[in-house]
Amino acid sequence: MPLLRIDHLTLEIDRRELVREVSLSVAPGEILSIIGPNGAGKTTLLRAISADLEASAGQVRFNDQPLSDWQAAERALAMAVLTQANPLSFPFTVGEVVALGRTPHSTGVAVDREVCHAAMTALDVNHLEGRLYPSLSGGEKQRVQLARVMAQIWRPDTGADRLLLLDEPVTSLDLGHQRQLMQAIRQFADSGVGVVMVVHDISLAAAYSDHLLALNDGRRVAYGAPDEVVTSALMSELFNTEVDVIPHPQSGKPVVLAR
Amino acid sequence: MVIPAQQRARRRRQGTIGLSVGLVVSFILALLLGSVSLSPWVVVQALFGGDTPEHLALIVQSLRLPRALLAASVGAILAICGAILQGLFRNPLADPSLIGVTAGASVGASVMIVVGASLGSLLGGIAGVTLVSFGAFLGGLVTVWLVYRVATGINGTSVATMLLMGIAVSALSASATGLLDYFADNEMLRRMSLWRMGGLDGANFTRAGLSCVVLLLILAAVPAFGRALNTLLLGESQARHLGIDVERLKTRLIVLVAAGVGLAVAVSGSIAFVGLVVPHMVRLWVGPDHRVLLPLSALGGAVLLLLADAVARTAMAPAELPVGLVTALLGAPFFISLLRRRRQEGF
User: In chain B, which among 85-114 make CB contacts under 8 A with chain A?
Assistant: First the structure.
């Protein structure tokens, strides 16, 4: 039984079709990355999965129930979302921000503290716990926000399988932290959580994802394992520029090089 | 370097104890001070039915006690409403008077005074206060809703739009009250202008009781809203993803603020500055967690207005200063020094 199943989903904003007839499915423990040029509808698709946007046609099923049947409070126990912009200008400490992720739960202070601690360790922000959030650098803020959404669904507290949605989680990070963060996401997925994320760096997406979904102008142009999707012909067409795809010397995963 | 998290836990305890003691002390001061200075013994006897000269007992029982109760409850209401608005707008610059809610409430109250007078003048009694409060509540409700709708888009609240809406609403309110003046007769005019001057000198047990009841209602709602308001600071869609019913939360908060500010305006006119400065100061001290911020703001607001009113009554006795003038004189320098310190500490 797939954790997330989308059938012929069409999305409109102000009567403009931004996503057309897209289908996909995600199993527990799987990472699906959505790739494509700017304005392809990646974020729009993610917003529909996170119930911020209603489908104008087609269906989204989460844990084998239509997404619209889920109560917001119930859904928050099994689905966590990291949006692109996270404007927080109030001086919460890092520990307090991560603890906000436990809001939907009533598991008690001891469990909450343990979970927050584990999430902060996974993202290497433990040493920042007492610092004030607005005083952090962009990359640190991003890791703290990711720790918050991971803390939200860290343990399987209900019978439902868990899903993590991430919109460009690594865009503002340096090379070392990009890798560290992707590894943390991979480990989190391996504990049985489904992950859907929008990623701009194709090589990074190919290295860590089980499946890739390529969107162009709202349509699904490719969907499958990384080495099926990341080919020089498809990538050149998708991004409208000449690229080469070579296998990574160590891992063998496809790497995209601009010509 | 002191870690903010530990410092905050300590400051929370200090703040709670300090402000509670401050409330008791300032309440006692409010009973003792005035154009006639009373000894503590006289006040105690007057309150608990001892043997005191009748005119002194009267001063304590029917002038100073209701006035102190009114000052404390209105101060607490204004501060807590300011804190809620700042959380709702995700902006520490939101304040009932800056964004026009006070002005809107004033229009509602003025309309009710005119309508109420022509209905046969029930003003003065509990019906009058309730009617004016209701008008102010409606005026406040429409204003918060309007400002919120215009200023808040998908990317959060625009400060510029919010403050400009405040100017627009205030201008509209000024012309509306001007229009009401034009149509009002002498008696109504006198009543409206007296009311508009505001202040706490109209205190009686009806007003004090009404504002204490509203304060208790707002305080009772705090535990339910504290956590939700915290998630709202992350952003609206972030709060939604944490399972909060954001639309319902916003509606309830707006109604709560309108009720609070409406009542405060109806019983004491417009007292600016309390709703901006008190939550700000409390936040700088204990951090933005609303579960702590809201109750401590209530305490701080009560203390500030009690002290301000005591100063207003004694500084130029037997004449009285408007209390709003004193709150600004007391609060502004403190506020500026806190802002300076915040810049130096770099957060």
Answer: 90, 92
Computed over every residue of chain B, the mean pLDDT equals: 81
SS (H, E, C) chain A: CCCEEEEEEEEEECCEEEEEEEEEEECCCCEEEEECCCCCCHHHHHHHHCCCCCCCEEEEEECCEEHHHCCHHHHCCCEEEECCCCCCCCCCEHHHHHHHCCCCCCCCHHHHHHHHHHHHHHCCCHHHCCCEHHHCCHHHHHHHHHHHHHHHCCCCCCCCCCEEEEECCCCCCCHHHHHHHHHHHHHHHHCCCEEEEECCCHHHHHHHCCEEEEEECCEEEEEECHHHHCCHHHHHHHHCCCEEEEECCCCCCEEEEEC
Residue B306 has pLDDT above 80, yes or no: yes
Q: What is the pLDDT of residues A135-180, one digit of tens each?
A: 888 889 999 999 999 999 998 878 889 999 999 998 878 888 899 8
User: What's the pLDDT at A252?
Assistant: 85
**Distances in whole angstroms, Cα of residue A246 to Cα of each of A35, A175, A209:** 18, 20, 17
pLDDT of B75? 94
Report CB contact under 8 Å: B242, A103.
yes
Task: Select the residue of A52, A88, A96 nearest B237 (Cβ to Cβ).
Answer: A52
Residue B124 pLDDT exceeds 60: no
In terms of CA atoms, which chain A residue is nearest residue B233?
A88
Instruction: Enter the CATH code of domain B7-338.
Output: 1.10.3470.10
B288 contacts A92? CB cut-off 8 A = yes
In chain B, domain spans = 7-338
Query: A81 at the B interface (CB within 8 A)?
Result: yes
Stretch A86-111: mean pLDDT: 88
pLDDT for B346 equals: 42
